[in-house]
Amino acid sequence: MNSHTHFVWNADPVLFSLNEMTLPFPVSVWGLILSAVLIYFGLQKINPPSKKKESEAPAWQFWSVVLGSLLIGQLPFLFIDSPALETIGPVAPRWYGLMFAFAFISGYAIGFRLFLDAGRSQEDLDRLLIYVLVATIIGARLGHVFFYEADFYLRNIHLIPQVWTGGLASHGAAIGIILAMALYAKNTAGTSFLWVADRVVPGVAIGGMFIRIGNFFNSEILGMPTDLPWAVIFARVDMLPRHPSMLYESVLCIIVLISLAAIYYRYDKKPPEGSLFGTFLVMLFSGRFLIEFTKETLADFLAGNLLDMGQLLSIPFVLTGAWLLIRIVKWK
User: Fold this and answer.
1) If residue 33 lies in a helix (H) or strand (E), which one and from where to where?
2) What is the rounded CA–CA span in Å between residue 180 and residue 23?
3) CB 222 within 8 A of CB 292
4) Helix (H) or strand (E) holding 24
5) What residue ranges in the chain does DSSP mark as E strands?
6) Contact 295, 221 (CB under 8 A)
7) pLDDT the model gives residue 25
8) Choosing a second label site near 43 at 20 to 30 A (CA), which of 106, 198, 269, 291?
């Protein structure tokens, strides 16, 4: 495997780091909670929900409430014992976290555009965002736990909530998002599941692109060794040239997004219900099925099998998408 000069990836997954800083004075934890309450009610006072946007309170009033509440919240605990923060840090944000934030910001921006085109309010979208955000994190975590490391986590149940230690599965996230969309549609008058799904999946596609770039920064979800010219050596793992499988998936997400946009504008921003969702399922998970052939097996108990866990989980999504496109979608 030395016939090519391969690109070596050795970037630090940490975006930047700040050493631990000592605060000039202890900050009461209970004081911060009290401050948050004061800020909430203070902002309600100066800018009640019924108030029109054109008559919102000026910025100086906003900052007066925030800073004043922070100060007042600390005063009682100068005389009352309370847990206190004396240091901050160390701070070490990671590229993956930044990409995760970009995923939701870009997904929200696309969703805002689609909801606006459909005459829906931003409040409706904000409520949907909460459903999807919570479902994505919980679904991705539980997907990894039960699909890939069930034996370990069933013996260490207390570790399941520790999302920050790593271990998120995209198939689990997909299941979580589907359940969230169904719950949102059920609790929103005049909204069907397929209508919601069609407006969510474009944002999921661009979000998937950012997430996989984050995996690249982390040197994770590695491909199998190969001698192809575009192979990448992940120096933090080993010195073997490997398929950059996470970048394959990132490109796949871009292709899916472009395809969804083509259908959306082909039907003048009113695509047949289920057309975007069905196309998303077929394209993304068919591509995922093929890309899995380039990956290292994550589920050890399937090592040596013809298909790995990612492929087995992709098949139901592809079949569901095909069924939607053939039997349910009313093409015009």
Assistant:
1) helix 29-46
2) 41
3) no
4) strand 21-28
5) 7-9, 21-28, 84-88, 232-234, 241-242
6) yes
7) 84
8) 106
- Main-chain phi, psi angles of 312, to 5 degrees: -60, -40
Cα(250)–Cα(212) distance, rounded to whole angstroms? 6
Boundary (domain end) residue, out of 88, 118, 147: 88
Looking at the structure, tell me whether residues 259 and 113 fall in a common domain.
yes
Residue 235 has pLDDT above 90, yes or no: yes
106 and 72 assigned to the same domain: no
Which positions ≥6 away from 326 have C-beta within 8 Å?
none
**Domain carrying residue 265:** 95-328
The helix (H) or strand (E) run that includes residue 233 is: strand 232-234
Q: Where are the beta strands (DSSP E) in 43-108?
A: 84-88
Amino acid at 317: F
Backbone angles phi, psi at 154, to 5 degrees: -70, -20
Q: Is residue 315 included in any domain, yes or no?
A: yes
Q: pLDDT value at position 1?
A: 44
pTM above 0.85, yes or no: no
Query: What's the CA dihedral at 75, 76, 79, 85 to 10 degrees?
Result: -70
pLDDT, tens digit (0-9, with 9 covering 90-100), for 40-59: 888 888 877 655 555 566 78
Which of 59, 88, 117 represents a domain boundary (last residue)? 88
Q: What is the pLDDT of residues 196-206, one digit of tens each?
A: 999 999 999 99
Residue with tokens 């592809």: 318
**pLDDT tens digits, 139-198:** 888 888 888 888 888 888 888 887 766 677 888 888 999 999 999 999 988 899 999 999
Angle of the 309-323 helix axis to the 275-291 helix axis, nearest 10? 150
User: Helix or strand or coil: residue 91?
Assistant: strand
DSSP helix/strand/coil, 85: strand
Q: Give the residue carrying structure tokens 């975006």.
A: 15
Percent of the chain with pLDDT over 70: 93
